[in-house]
């Protein structure tokens, strides 16, 4: 994965969000400790930044298929302000970025949902970015692959 400087992105909120699991397992009456589940909690979504160019329809479609096909999670160490390029075809790329000072983990399902939100608001072949409350950002932008 390529590391890209995290420039030109503005995050609107500095909120923390997590859903706490029930402290008691009702089936086994066992205590559950430190269980949290993150879900996509959008705080901003912007489209058509001139400096990010335009994606191709084919690149957009391949990125969507790729992201929806991934299983598991993506983890980013805290403290650095970089982005990972996680998809790139037909000069259309998807970057995952974090400015959270702590390590964060998101499911690929969350990443795919965030990419879908960009498509829903911005349209296919338009660039965009969406950020969630724990300082995690998905960017769709034109770049050489």
Mean pLDDT: 76
SSE topology string? EEEEEEHEEEEHEE
- Count helical runs: 2
Q: Total domains, how many? A: 1
Structural class: alpha+beta
Shape: globular
Note the main sheet.
6 strands, antiparallel
N-to-C terminal Cα separation, in Å? 12 Å
Helical fraction equals: 10-25%
Strand content: 35-45%
Low-confidence stretches: 1-37
Counted beta strands: 12
Rg from alpha-carbon coordinates:
16 Å
Neighbour order of strands in the largest sheet:
1-8-9-12-11-6
Describe this structure in words.
By secondary structure, the protein is an alpha+beta fold. It has one domain. Helix content is 19%, strand content 37%. The chain has helices at residues 57-69, 108-122, and strands at 2-5, 19-20, 24-25, 30-31, 36-37, 42-47, 73-76, 82-89, 92-98, 104-107, 128-132, 136-142. The strands form four sheets. Strands 1-8-9-12-11-6 form a six-stranded antiparallel β-sheet. Strands 2-5 form a two-stranded antiparallel sheet. A two-stranded antiparallel sheet has the order 3-4. The chain is globular.
Fold topology:
Layout: E1 2-5, E2 19-20, E3 24-25, E4 30-31, E5 36-37, E6 42-47, H1 57-69, E7 73-76, E8 82-89, E9 92-98, E10 104-107, H2 108-122, E11 128-132, E12 136-142
Antiparallel strand pairs: 1-8, 2-5, 3-4, 6-11, 7-10, 8-9, 9-12, 11-12
Keywords: Signal
Protein name: Ecp2 effector protein domain-containing protein
Signal peptide: 1-21
